[in-house]
Amino acid sequence: MKFNHYLCSLFLFSVPALSAITVDTPEGSLKFYGDVEFNVDAASKTGQLTSLRTNSGNNWNAGNTERWDVNGRILLGVDGYRSVANNKFAGFTVQPLADLSGNMNLDDAAFFFGQEKDWKVKVGRYEAFDMFPLNQDTLIEYSGNTANNLYDDGFGYIYMMKEGRGRSSAGGAIQLSKMSGPFYFELNTFASDGTKLFQDQAYHGNALENKKNVIYLRPIVAYTVNDVTAAIAMETNVVSNAYGYNDANGNFNDQSKRNGYGATFSWNGQKSNPDDGVVFNLSTAYLDATDEKDFSAGTNALWHDFELGYIYAKNDVQKFNFANTDIVNADEVILGKYDIHTVHASYRIRNVMEMDNFDVYLGAYWSRLSMDNEQGDDKDRYGARVRFKYHF
Questions:
Q1: Any residues with CB less than 8 A from the CB of 65 and at least 6 apart, and which?
Q2: Contact 151, 160 (CB under 8 A)
């Protein structure tokens, strides 16, 4: 079961850490902070937008029951920072997580250095610039918020320029960034086991074999004037034959071609008008991958703690290997062109218990998957969430 936590980019609406402890040392300052995110979720009979499969195979069963779930995590963060003459600086961040399943995980773990308001180098585990921001905390069940398990074979995929963004359990990243007047330039280089992008390391019905790690290059150019930010970007794997499968004749078929392109436009009216300003985002992305072409576009707006958004996706799966599945009827899998329409909304309740560091978020979404041919009926998916957010 996947529930997604979306964060806004550097230039967009975000919730600051309202409380923190800062300790000054001869080597710089240390900041200790944390936050709690606990969710109560309810969702429709399948955890993701599924294809129109209806047979009883365990791997292909959409399920027939709605689901309730309590999940979440506690984050404890430590940031270190030191600056010297000529605005030179260095620092680090580490954010361990304890989740309700009893596991210890990690959010960010990065080291960085550079010159303030000029250039910066970052190395480690983190997320790069968000090219498809969804505004405040949002529940949508189809795409993860890290570079892992974004694509689930046979399920609807909404491409959001995240495959080379980072924060993966299978590899790390190096980022170079530069500020020049209203321009921001970023090049993120992300190295990882490319098969970790896919649930169960399967793509179009084929079990993937990793030959060598992928290397994604993700250049971004952003332009900010007052409340407006516009950005364009691409991401591409530059390592050929990184992963694939062997066919019946023993020939290796490369599946690692993935070229993505995106653009986003944001207007953050809360910069100049924190009480009544509107935050508006408009994003689009296109993926040219092996035997698949994906297009998505989304828009959302936030005003007075209420957020409303819409996402459209139109994809084309051009090839699928049915020999490696238990599918009886080929019409029961996504093959060809399909559309996904999604509406999502959230509302932030501030200062719960008269505490300025305790908020509650109410979120919901509704999605419909429609095939372009006569491949069964349209399928609806929906979910709702109550999130308790506490900063310390």
A1: 45
A2: no
Eight-state DSSP code of residue 23 = E
Give the separation between CA 372 and CA 349, rounded to whole angstroms: 40
Distances from the Cα of 117 to the Cαs of 208, 268, 352, in angstroms? 43, 21, 37
Task: Supply 204's token pair.
Answer: 């179009």
- Report d(CA 105, CA 190) in Å as an integer: 20
DSSP, collapsed to helix, strand or coil, labels residue 322 as: helix
Q: Which residue has the tokens 């997604």?
A: 4
Residue 186 φ/ψ, nearest 5 degrees: -145, 135
pLDDT in tens, 277-286: 999 999 999 9
Question: What value, to the nearest 5°, has the Cα angle with vertex 219 and ends 216 and 220?
Answer: 140
What is the rounded CA–CA span in Å between residue 353 and residue 178?
A: 42
Dist CA 260 CA 220 (whole Å): 12
pLDDT-above-90 percentage for the chain: 60
Burial class (CB in 10 A: 0-12, 13-18, 19+), 21: exposed
2-11, pLDDT tens digit by residue? 333 332 333 3
Supply angle C-alpha 224, 109, 129, rounded to 5. Answer: 20
Are 51 and 332 in contact by the 8 Å Cβ rule? The answer is yes
Q: Which residues contact 354 (CB under 8 A, 6 or more apart)?
A: none
Q: What is the DSSP string of 274-293?
A: TTT-EEEEEEEEEEEETTEE
Which tokens hold the place of 171? Answer: 């590899």
Distances (CA, A) of 247 to 254, 263, 324: 11, 37, 11
